[in-house]
């Protein structure tokens, strides 16, 4: 199982980077999101995969025992998902704004500081 | 001694606040500082001439072995007296020379900063503090050369000087660190006993080259000499003080100081004799092509510095004593000539030697000082210059190799120096007085007394050389750790070879002075060779470096995001790839594949399809929808693999993202395909290899055993300490509660940003 997930992480990284290298700003954002998903999966994998054993203590118990999924990567990923949502929404609005002002979706049109370009 | 060194620094700091009081008539009071220091150091004279050495040490950064330790021995005392003595005269002179100057206080500030640094340099016993003071002299020199900072010439010269001496400073630091490493201490006095282990070490040659580099750049040796003539853009008191009497001798001082530590035989002698020899003759010949008085003096200064390096290279006791005496001789006559040039420039407004004549009729005391200075410079008896020149010939004649060649070299250099002294000190005062100079008056005594004092000192020391012998020559000889033989400085040695050589020098020098008139034609003739002069080559080199760095910068800093990302990714691939493949095995556990259920397979296929569709679709809406598929597959994946919280978060966040995208992006233009096929293939290969690398990396990491210590802590304590049954939640809101709070504030900031951008109404700018 881990092997397949490792390959999928690789695919996410590759497609994320590929999209970031495009000139369209929308593609750039899509690339960042894909890359972010890849990173989440990477962290998730490092905690190893456990099926059907969430890190929740049984109502009768006081201590988590036996086989259980690692809660630490989950806590990290949860944080990451939320933060990347903040980033994504800001980036999306920024692109919209940029288009409104400059009438372009092309990153190459942005690499100048001259106002009248 | 610490107080003596700090005094100058404190005074320059004081001028920052109280400078305005020292611009007017009070300016002359600043001379109290160098004068009192001079008297202070003079009080050590009896002790030092008895061969005693005064130590003083203060801890500064003891953990690095960097301390403020000071040594006052013969060598240090000679320099300290020169620095404070000539300093006193220059301070006095400046108060008249720059009278009423707008920035006079600033000038005094720089000057005392320099004096303090220079004192620190010659008194330091610790190589590191020596380096720091060394750099401070370069920096204060930069300010002083560029004092007329409204002139482009001055600024450029200051920059060139700082560049060259700055390179030297770096070399000195390198040499000091290496030397400290080899010796195990930065204290020069402790290194003295380690000469053999230092000269035998494998770093010896490198240390030697670094120290030499530092000394040659500071003391303007060929081919680094060109910054010194440029430095003559500074006001004359600066040229007098820094660029002839003291700072440029710092390199010579360093060589003197290092002789007992680093003098390890042939290589030491050869390099110093060759470099010193070339410098002294090269710049001596240059003298006859100059018409600017300061240019003449600059080249003769370089030549004199060459003689000093050359003598230290010879390294016999006679040569070292000759060098010590010559330092005094040179400081006395060259500083006087500079001050005299300053007076001439101040009164007539020109330094062009072809125009100056007959000034003795209006500036008689200056003419007297000039005449004596020329005598000292030419080595005419009974001045100290004669004693110095004899010592030089004495040491070249008795050197074991090439004695004849070295002696001829020394004689020819001295002939040119004789010429230089007379052109600068006598020629402007001879002949008929041109009409335009008839209204000139003698300036304030503050200006003409200092050169007179120095030249008379040169005369007195010449008649009574014993004064110099007991005060400096003997104590200095003792610092050099050579087999000490008693000697006496004498004006009259009887009829011998040396006297004959002296006579030859005087005759040839007189002939040269009488036959050769400085002219602009000569000056122009040498200008034709400028294109191969070290200065031009050096400037070309630095221009080339600037061009190279602009190419270098433009290569990496293109302003295109994809270039930056490609570069970063490519480097990551190279580095990680090397690491992974140097330690790689493809064995993995494939047994778990059998446990795959049909649900998992379908989710993974959905995920994969979503990713590929996002990348390859030509419709933006489809891409966004595919991204939604990816996100939802992720939530399912998390659900399967025991992460319900993640599943819920991912679900809500992804739904929101897709909605946001759709709401915002329908206004955007068509989804453009902007790159050509070749670029897409290139980027595809790059990102695909990066993906492969990440996969391999994960497989590699998964083989390592997992550390479960922290996991177990949370499993154990989630309920006990925080009374929560969902461990992930407990971690987020309890154990790492503050992190989560900060995360929330990040989100708030993002939300404010989004809100602001949405509500922002840009005013329509005036269209051009």
The largest contact between protein chains, plus residue counts on each side, is:
A-B, 93 and 102 residues
The number of distinct helices of chain A, counting runs of at least 4 residues, comes to 3
> How does CATH name the architecture of chain A?
Orthogonal Bundle
Number of helices of chain B: 32
> Taking strands numbered 1, 2, ... along the chain, how are they ordered across the largest sheet of chain B?
1-2
Structural class of chain A: mainly alpha
- Uncertain segments of chain A are none
Report what the structure shows.
- The complex is a heterodimer of chains A (117) and B (768).
- Chain A is mostly helical and 117 residues long.
- Chain A contains three helices and no strands.
- The termini of chain A are far apart.
- Chain B is mostly helical.
- Among the domains of chain B are: 298-518, no CATH class; 561-587 and 680-704; 592-673; 708-757, no CATH class.
- Chain B has a two-stranded antiparallel ribbon with strand order 1-2.
- In chain B, a hairpin with a 4-residue loop joins β1 and β2.
- In chain B, α4 (74-97) packs parallel to α16.
- The radius of gyration of chain B is 38 Å and the shape is elongated.
- The chains are: A mainly alpha (117), B mainly alpha (768).
Fold blueprint:
The complex is a heterodimer of chains A (117) and B (768).
Chain A: H1 2-20, H2 25-46, H3 71-102
Helix pairs in contact in A: 1-2, 2-3
Chain B: H1 2-18, H2 32-42, H3 45-49, E1 54-61, E2 66-72, H4 74-97, H5 104-123, H6 127-145, H7 152-183, H8 188-191, H9 195-200, H10 204-218, H11 227-231, H12 236-245, H13 250-262, H14 266-287, H15 293-314, H16 317-348, H17 364-378, H18 384-397, H19 403-425, H20 445-463, H21 466-479, H22 497-515, H23 520-527, H24 534-556, H25 561-581, H26 598-616, H27 620-640, H28 644-665, H29 677-702, H30 709-722, H31 727-735, H32 737-759
Helix pairs in contact in B: 1-2, 1-5, 2-4, 4-5, 4-12, 4-16, 4-20, 4-21, 5-6, 6-7, 7-10, 10-13, 12-16, 13-15, 14-15, 14-19, 15-16, 15-19, 16-17, 16-18, 16-20, 16-21, 17-19, 17-20, 18-19, 18-20, 18-22, 19-22, 25-29, 26-27, 27-28, 30-31, 31-32
GO biological process, one term (chain B): monoatomic ion transport
Protein name (chain B): Putative monovalent cation/H+ antiporter subunit A
Domain MrpA C-terminal/MbhE (chain B): 680-759
């Amino acid at each position: 199982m881990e092997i397949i997930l490792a390959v999928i992480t690789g695919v996410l990284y590759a497609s994320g980077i590929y999209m970031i290298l495009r000139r369209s700003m929308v593609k750039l954002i899509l690339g960042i999101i894909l890359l972010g998903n890849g990173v989440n999966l990477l962290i998730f994998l490092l905690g190893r995969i456990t099926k059907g054993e969430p890190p929740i203590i049984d109502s009768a118990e006081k201590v988590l025992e036996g086989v259980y999924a690692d809660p630490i990567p989950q806590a990290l990923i949860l944080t990451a998902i939320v933060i990347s949502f903040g980033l994504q929404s800001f980036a999306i609005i920024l692109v919209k704004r940029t288009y409104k002002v400059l009438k372009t979706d092309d990153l190459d049109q942005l690499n100048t500081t001259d106002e009248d370009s | 001694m610490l107080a003596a060194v700090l005094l100058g620094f404190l005074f320059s700091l004081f001028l920052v606040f109280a400078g305005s009081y020292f611009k007017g008539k009070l300016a002359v009071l600043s001379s109290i500082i160098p004068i009192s220091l001079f008297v202070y150091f003079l009080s050590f004279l009896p002790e030092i001439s008895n061969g005693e050495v005064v130590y003083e040490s203060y801890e500064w950064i003891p953990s690095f072995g960097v301390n403020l330790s000071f040594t006052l021995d013969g060598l240090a005392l000679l320099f300290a007296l020169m620095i404070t003595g000539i300093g006193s005269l220059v301070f006095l002179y400046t108060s008249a020379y720059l009278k009423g100057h707008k920035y006079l206080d600033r000038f005094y500030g720089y000057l005392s900063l320099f004096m303090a640094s220079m004192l620190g340099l010659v008194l330091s016993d610790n190589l590191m503090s020596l380096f720091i003071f060394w750099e401070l002299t370069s920096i204060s020199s930069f300010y002083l050369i560029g004092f007329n900072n409204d002139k482009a010439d001055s600024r450029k010269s200051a920059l060139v000087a700082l560049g060259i001496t700055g390179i030297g400073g770096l070399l000195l630091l390198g040499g000091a660190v290496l030397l400290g490493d080899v010796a195990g201490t930065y204290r020069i006095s402790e290194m003295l006993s380690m000469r053999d282990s230092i000269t035998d070490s494998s770093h010896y040659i490198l240390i030697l080259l670094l120290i030499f580099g530092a000394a040659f750049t500071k003391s303007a040796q060929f081919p680094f000499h060109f910054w010194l003539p440029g430095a003559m853009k500074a006001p004359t008191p600066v040229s007098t003080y820094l660029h002839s009497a003291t700072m440029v001798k710092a390199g010579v001082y360093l060589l003197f100081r290092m002789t007992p530590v680093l003098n390890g035989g042939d290589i030491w002698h050869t390099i110093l004799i060759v470099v010193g020899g070339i410098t002294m003759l090269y710049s001596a010949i240059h003298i006859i092509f100059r018409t600017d008085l300061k240019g003449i003096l600059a080249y003769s200064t370089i030549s004199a510095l060459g003689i000093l390096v050359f003598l230290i290279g010879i390294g016999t006791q006679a040569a070292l004593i000759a060098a010590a005496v010559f330092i005094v001789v040179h400081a006395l006559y060259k500083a006087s000539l500079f001050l005299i040039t300053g007076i001439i420039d101040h009164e007539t407004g020109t330094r062009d030697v072809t125009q100056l004549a007959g000034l003795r009729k209006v500036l008689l005391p200056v003419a007297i000082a000039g005449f004596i200075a020329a005598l000292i410079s030419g080595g005419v008896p009974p001045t100290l210059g004669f004693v110095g020149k004899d010592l030089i010939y004495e040491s070249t004649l008795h050197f074991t190799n090439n004695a004849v060649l070295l002696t001829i070299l020394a004689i020819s250099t001295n002939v040119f120096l004789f010429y230089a002294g007379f052109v600068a000190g006598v020629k402007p005062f001879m002949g008929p007085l041109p009409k335009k100079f008839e209204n000139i008056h003698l300036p304030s005594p503050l200006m003409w007394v200092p050169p007179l004092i120095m030249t008379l000192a040169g005369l007195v020391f010449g008649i009574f050389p014993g004064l110099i012998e007991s005060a400096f020559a003997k104590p200095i000889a003792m610092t050099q750790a050579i087999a000490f033989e008693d000697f006496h400085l004498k004006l009259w040695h009887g009829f011998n070879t040396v006297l004959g050589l002296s006579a030859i020098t005087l005759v040839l020098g007189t002939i040269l002075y009488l036959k050769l008139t400085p002219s602009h034609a000569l000056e122009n003739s040498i200008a034709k060779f400028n294109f191969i002069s070290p200065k031009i080559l050096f400037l070309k080199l630095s221009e080339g470096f600037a061009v190279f760095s602009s190419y270098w910068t433009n290569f990496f800093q293109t302003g295109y995001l994809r270039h930056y990302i490609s570069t970063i990714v490519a480097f990551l691939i190279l580095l990680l790839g090397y690491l992974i493949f140097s330690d790689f095995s493809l064995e993995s556990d494939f047994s778990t594949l059998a446990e795959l259920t049909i649900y998992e397979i379908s989710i993974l296929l959905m995920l994969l399809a979503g990713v590929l569709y996002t990348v390859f679709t030509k419709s933006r809406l489809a891409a966004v929808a595919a991204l939604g598929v990816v996100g939802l597959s992720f939530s399912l994946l998390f659900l399967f693999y025991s992460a319900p919280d993640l599943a819920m978060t991912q679900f809500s966040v992804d739904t929101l993202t897709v909605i946001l995208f759709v709401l915002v992006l329908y206004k955007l233009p068509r989804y453009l395909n902007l790159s050509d096929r070749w670029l897409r293939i290139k980027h595809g290969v790059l990102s695909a290899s990066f993906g492969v690398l990440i996969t391999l990396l994960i497989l590699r990491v998964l083989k390592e055993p997992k550390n479960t210590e922290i996991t177990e802590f949370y499993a154990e304590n989630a309920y006990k300490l925080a009374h929560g049954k969902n461990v992930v939640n407990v971690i987020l809101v309890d154990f790492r509660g503050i992190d989560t709070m900060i995360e929330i504030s990040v989100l708030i900031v993002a939300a404010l940003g989004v809100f602001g951008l949405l509500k922002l109404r840009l005013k329509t700018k005036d269209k051009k």
